[in-house]
Amino acid sequence: MSESPKSLRELLELLQQEKQLLSFNREHALEPDLSAAAQAGQNIGETSPALMFNNLQGYPGKRIVLNTVSSWPNYALSMGLPKESSQQQIYQEVLRRWSDSPWELQEKTEQPPFMDNIIEGDDINLFELIPLFRGNERDGAPYITKGAFISRDISEPNNDDKENVSIYRVQAKGKNLLSAQFVPGHDCARHLSIAEERGENLKVAIAIGVPPALSVAACSPLPYEESEFKLAAALQDSPFEVYKSEHTGLNLPWSAEYIIEGEIIAGEREHEGPFGEFTGFYCGNRKMPLFKVTRVMHRDQPVFENLHLARPMSESDYIMAFNNGVAMHQELKTNFPGIKAVNALNCYGLVTIISIDQNMGGIAKSAALRAMTTAPGLISAKTVIMVDDDVDPFDMYQVMWAMSCNMNPQFDVSLINGLPSVGLDPASVPTGITAKMVIDACRPTAPDLRGNSKPKEDIVHPTGTGEWEQKLTAMIKAL
To answer: What is 8-317's CATH number?
Structure first.
């Protein structure tokens, strides 16, 4: 294990060294070249590289990187792990680091590199400063899709634990105007509500091109009084460096490529969308808050990092891969200590797979129902599949084996109607309401002894299989 990258540029250097980054120096048009390249990269599969475009038509001196962590090797490297790490190995390391949270922030006073270029007032034109483009053909406008959106509870302006960092889709509406899709119940929406009750605008910032640990933390389901910056510190195993903005009073990632500062206008809403979402479908127009930009800062030769969203697996799925699962694990383990791992990477956990060591019959189904009431599972976890602790929930061959051989639909499938779901779930009827399903693919455990799939009847691996795995892996790596 090596040190986790502390900036986007450190990550890109590491990806280059590990042959997980492709660079393009020939001039490329923003549309349709970039979205087509990103989709093609994702089509290649689970080991695809990041894509760096160094010569952008109409944007001299600016660069774009896509698919930064859109593969398991790149995700592992972003955490300082070997690129050969399995999903289970990455999960267990994320779980360990999450359990060590929170770490403290490291506030730096020297001028950060993003202040090399400062643009304010009438000189702001987002379409000239940032190489914005549409990720999918029917998107209503160009979007910022991997910006860390930072806000704070104005009723406690000095409380860093009530500062929130999230990733929202952000639509470019004008040269100094943006619109963000705030999800009701999320911390930033709560911050805005508090400000609007006082008749005040909410000061906010968007950081683009941030350390990879912050991108992961910003997508994590944390309680209101827990800091994503501090979780990012835990995930990267070192204090997280921030710079306090004199403009907004917000903490800003010290190594960011771009910083966009401004305020959300109290009481103002405007149509936002359509937009191609993580479900693989477009969502329509909704009235969303407006963000007036008052200052833009960026590094010399800045790198604009953006997400391409499409049918899974896209980069958003990789960034979110372990967040909901680890958060569910943390909630479940108190009552169900037999929980081994939670795979919630399928469309943000709409299908969740949990491995458990049952100590008595019915425990697996009980744990599944509890998973549906955890903070992340409440609006996701539409289908929960339970498997035994000797089944890797990240290995679909093993999961399908368990469902094929251990599950009897007459006894092991349960449906519950009228439960909440994420509003972007295209199958919910009405929007935000769904039935949920538990599939118990564990072997029957006493006092439930029906069927004949007993542990003692399993085929076990021959003696020495583990040693041979290590030997073969080393030989293959040396080829």
So the answer is: 2.30.110.10
Q: Where in the chain is the domain with CATH 2.30.110.10?
A: 8-317
The answer regarding whether domain 322-449 maps to CATH 3.40.1670.10 reads yes
**Quick one: three-class SS letters along the chain?**
CCCCCCCHHHHHHHHHHCCCEEEECCCECHHHHHHHHHHHHHHHCCCCCEEEECCECCCCCCEEEECCCCCHHHHHHHCCCCCCCCHHHHHHHHHHHHHCCCCCEEECCCCCHHHHEEEEHHHCCHHHHCCCCCCCCCCCCCEECCEEEEEECCCCCCCHHHEEEEECCEEEEECCEEEECCCCCCHHHHHHHHHHHCCCCEEEEEEECCCHHHHHHCCCCCCCCCCHHHHHHHHCCCCEEEEECCCCCCEEECCCCEEEEEEEEEEEEEEECCEECCCCCEECCEEEEEEEEEEEEECCCCEEEECCCCCCCCHHHHHCCCHHHHHHHHHHCCCCCCEEEEEEEEHHHCEEEEEECCCCCCHHHHHHHHHCCCCCCCCCCCEEEEEECCCCCCCHHHHHHHHHHHCCHHHHEEEEEEEECCCCCCCCCCCCEEEEEEEECCCCCCCCCCCCCCHHHCCCCCCCHHHHHHHHHHHHHHC
The amino acid at 42: Q
Where in the sequence numbering do the catalytic residues fall? 277
Q: What is the pTM of this model?
A: 0.87
Q: pLDDT per residue over 191-233, tens digit each?
A: 989 999 999 999 999 999 999 999 999 988 888 888 999 999 9
pLDDT (tens digit per residue) in 40-95: 888 888 899 999 999 999 999 999 999 999 999 999 999 999 999 999 999 999 99
